Amino acid sequence: MIAIIDYGAGNLRSVANAVSSLGYAPEITSDPATVLRAEAVIFPGVGAAGDTMKNLVKTGMAEAVCRLIEADRHLFAVCVGMQVLFGYTEEGGHHCLGVMPGTVKRLPAGLKVPHMGWNQVNQIAACPLFDGIPDRTNFYFVHSYYPDPDDASVVAGTTEYGVSFCSVAVRGNLVATQFHPEKSGRWGLEMYDNFLKLATAPGKHFLHQGATT
Fold first, then answer.
1. pLDDT band at residue 46, thresholds of 50, 70 and 90?
2. Which of 26, 52, 102, 148 is positioned for an S-S bond with 86, CB 3.0–4.6 A?
3. CA distances in angstroms from 65 to 108, 113, 133, 174, listed in the order given
4. What is the pTM for the complete model shown?
């Protein structure tokens, strides 16, 4: 079973439609127990980090997400879903889940924000998430803040917008993107498909440790 976490984010249906188009039958759920039983979990995100954290705690999903990561389960976090994995965000000065060391920072002054539209992702680690996807492929972004991991080894992809920032992070079976695969056409669907195929292959991890491109 593939679960899409429902904590009040606004793009659940577009994520579900993307996954369904690949031949899977996702379940949108606000039940932490259902999430913890799932074979693969997608953690979407739209909106402010503070509201996201409030809703995650209120629904019990904050604990569920932490348990999934602690158990090295297959989890795909998107946009704000990615940002709240880190310890602290400059957006409102909120503490987040803290399951990945680092800070979420505001894009540099003088840039048009939000950073909205298509931009390239530079593949800097050999990762099955990128299978079949050309380096420097364009994906769709909508954000004003970006994650800055303390551990450079989790960075699998970067993007340039006033600063070079982490746009894809991978640790074990946790993958996270600052862009929206469900809004990124063919290559976004390919990325979801790569994730879901690997989620059904026990023992495989997404980041090939020590290998870079």
1. confident
2. 102
3. 30, 29, 28, 10
4. 0.93
Per the annotation, the verdict on 79 as an active-site residue is yes
| Residue 153 contacts residue 143 (beta carbons within 8 Å) | no
Domain boundaries, the chain: 2-199
**Nearest-5° Cα angle at 105, 104 to 106:** 135
Check if 160 is active-site: no
Query: 2-199, which class in CATH?
Result: alpha beta
| 180 in active site | yes
Backbone dihedral region for residue 179 (phi beyond 0: left; psi -120 to 50: alpha; all else: beta)? beta
> Which of the residues 74, 94, 115, 180 is marked catalytic?
180
Quick one: angle between helices 185-199 and 12-21, nearest 10?
A: 70
Pairing of strands 115-123, 137-143: antiparallel
Please state whether beta strands 164-171 and 174-177 pair in parallel, antiparallel, or not at all (unpaired): antiparallel
CA distance 7 to 212: 35
Query: Does residue 35 sit in helix, strand or coil?
Result: helix
Strands ordered across the beta sheet of 86-89 = 94-95, 86-89, 100-106, 145-149
Say which amino acid occupies 194: N
Computed over every residue of the chain, the mean pLDDT equals 92
pLDDT tier at 207 (50, 70, 90 boundaries)? Answer: low
